[in-house]
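Sharing a chain and its predicted structure for anyone who wants a worked example. Both blocks are below, sequence first, tokens second.
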Amino acid sequence: MMVLLLSAVLLGQGITNASFNGTVKDNNGMPLVGANVVAVHEPSGSVFGASTRDDGRFNLVNVRVGGPYTITVSYIGYTEQKIEDVIIKLGEDRRLNFTLVEEAIKGAEITVVAERSEILSASNMGTATSVSLEQIERLPTINRSINDYTRLTPQAASAAGGTSIAGSNNRYNNFQVDGAVLTDPFGLQPNRTPTDQINSQPISLDAIQEFQVEVSPFDVRSGGFVGGLINAVTRSGDNQFSGSAYYFGRNESFVGKLEDREYADFTNFQTGARISGPIMQNKLFFFVNAEWENDKRPSSIGPSDSNQPVKIAFSSADFDRAISISQNTWGYDPGGYSPITNETKNLKLFGRLDWNISNQHRLTLRSNYIDGDLDDGLVRTTAAYPLENTLFLRNNTTTSTVMELNSAFGNNKANQARLAFTTVRDKRTPEGELFPQVEIFSSTRNERIRLGTERFSQKNALDQDVIAFTDNFLIYSGDHTFTLGTHNEYTKYRNLFIQDAYGAYEFDSLAAYQAGRPSRYFYSYSQIEGTPYPEADWGYYQLGFYGQDAWKIAPAFNFTYGVRVDIPLMPDEPLYNPTFANAFPGRSTSEVPSGNLIWSPRFGFNWDVLGDRSTQLRGGFGMFSGFPPGVWISNQYSNTGVELYRLDLRGAAAPNFSPDPFNQPLGQAIRTSEVNLTDTDFKMPQVMRTSIALDRQLPRGFVGTLEFVHGNNVNEIRFRNINLGTDGYGSAVGEVPHGADGRPAYATFRDTDGDGTIESNLTSGASAEFVRVRKSADFTNVILMENTSEGHQWNFTARVQKQLNQGIFPNMFGSLSYTISDAQDINSNRSSRAISNWQFNETDDPNGETVGRSDFLVRHRFLGNLSYQFRYAGGWATTVSLFYESRSGAPFSYLYGDDANGDGVSGNDLAFIPTRQSDVVVSASDWTKIEAFINSDEALQNARGQIFPRNSATAPWQNYLDLRIAQKLPTYLFGNLEVTLDILNLPNLLNSDWGKIKFVNNDAFNIYRLDGYDAASGRPKIRFTQGDTNKDGKIDRNDIFQTSDLASRWQMQIGLRYSF
């Protein structure tokens, strides 16, 4: 008799393979010592072998993902046993328990005691979702993006421009491929991949074998994230030559109309090929993939007298005059204004070698390369129209190389060593002649002509280098598997970013441009002698050490416990600013947090409740941490106040125009500008996460799961402006009583013109009746990054899954789930800049934020996917796959459109929601409109008499349904041909009124204008300006929502693939 138990585990950071474990016993239940266990990976002939130890246990570690495998067990005097067609997933630790019978015993039956899905696994403890090769190949996608598959995770959702996992910041995720970081360490973009800036994927989808999205992996090897770990492994070669060539394409004809508007012209295609096979049979294998992507989007905007479908309020004569002035007065050719085509293109190359050195040692070497360009600077809208020579080229080159050695020593020890090196090069190259940026405004200042070198790209380049070494040493002893390991990284940055290095000017008219008299002037220049363009050149070490014991306490109960410590070291000091040190005693621009230890204890368990692997309870507790986006630290290296002088001169103070980018006027007023710094006690972001789940085998191959995940912030990040003065209400200056809404103020308020109103001078143009209070007049803003423990997240999920080749309909897989979530924080920190994270946080107090709903919250989410393959004779097959998502809209806030507290920032102050008209100063007609508007939104009704709670309003519900149809055609010669059709937003294809996606710009809406405060009572003086935008005869909350131009239309893509 042979007894076989199958189980799986989802493991941690950098897991790039899988394992087998189990026991070999005789028919009396006694362990057989020294039995031979051999697993053969049939496609490659790779052999993995071990002998059983004194307790009859064995481990085959670091085996290749996939299969099929044939596992053979032999022992002298006993009948050899064999199992075939075993497929193993990424990170699995498959349990195989054999019972051998003596050769003298005839007729012994080989049976399988338990064969469950990979979900019902003795080692499955944490929260994770696996995405198989079949799912990658079958489910709908147009962009061929990893994000199209991470959305299969109930706890992972698109939010605030990226993928949020478990309600955490989308910049807190870690994306690894073959154990190497393919996340953008600097973190400029929400998706945080190194190729986001050129709208490219970081690796070809055809190079991916499978991946996991891990939310709470309790293995201590998991590190480098606070949100989630996206862990992918790539394809490899075997003994058979195989390959594929493919093409996917679409254009504007494959996009539906929106309110009878055609989508702008464009063409997009991806084409590529992969091939793999043996270099030496059973010994050395290769896999290579190449992919080219091209996207062209012509401009559809023109002058007011053009025949373009969209027009700007400048005529052709206006453009001709701007060009003539540039050429004849200033000696510069700005290019034309004819329609242009913006192009994006990238090349992806991937190669991998796998070498079976021996049955005990295996070496893998692989490299991923991307080079891409994106035309930028010529994005034309009805508000801004750049001329041709404003064009600049964004270029990104990313290379990631990994070498991994997997070794087995005897029957009870194994080691995995990995060395990875990643380089990222980003730069912006102006295509035209260098020239200051010039913006010429219309009379309403709502439109502008732009020419010259774009101000944010005049000096802009970023180099990133990451070298990482990981080693995991495993010892198997009885019921225990001990892990000792280390993961160490060194990251180096060279960041050059000087906006306005060649100057930037605003002109109120074409005549002013010709006369060289600007209304505003920007210029940044170096304070450091001999260094004209200062760079932030710095790096950090992240050292990690960990130990763990995976203990099989009983046949039905597994327990894992361990601890991890991470040590960030920052050896490079920013520049010292003595003026700042005098103004802020105890703080220094040259001090950064270094050596602050981060301890992460973990434990997890799995209990086979009934002992037959039909019902399991699993869960655990763990601390998870990761280095924040490097740009948040780099802000201090770039903004000490001693690198650059920054000029922003207006009106009469603005100097005459200079066309020479290297000889810009210095003006008269020079002031040390913004300073960024990090608290010296600052610790890396960290969350304490707990999960508990119940899995149950259901009839016909289905598995049901109830799962709860809870996270408490331990070291979250907040930004504070420590140069803000104290409360100006009722201060010694004593101008104004405390405001009616109770918010603190950072200015003195004085009715200087005696009209009974203290005007908000940022918007009304009045004299300075809000006088901002600064602790030091030598600086504008001083932004401190520090820790907070405020905030939490939780998710509860009910889920039913059906896996391929199991139960009813073996050609079908699918999943259906519902998740309810909560995510609370004091600042969602969605920007790359310290000043932006502070000033764009909607709050009643920018330095004393209260906990509110996070920007990353998706309160309710239904999720489903289904795929079925119809197979016919002769190799024909039709595959139909669906993806469905129905979710709550994004949370948003109602704001004042002005500066309500004197902090110098407009558009971040939560609005006061009056209960009655007497709470505010407002006209009777406006109050009628405000009352109706408040009554249209439950969140506003609940906020009456108080400052609106941050993010307590919710945008409309969103629904998505995508379809893919794939038809496989045999060629009758060699290989097969597959034709695919992907359709996104299928409901909109069926009915143009369906599938609309509504949102609020920047997740915030200015409900009314704040003109100031009543001098006698402190009541807000407001005006209501919202109109009937949707033309339904009333003004209510439905008027504030925007309709997503692309997501609200159906889209199609046709694909063609030849495979052999």
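Comments welcome. Residues 316-328 form the longest helix (13 residues).
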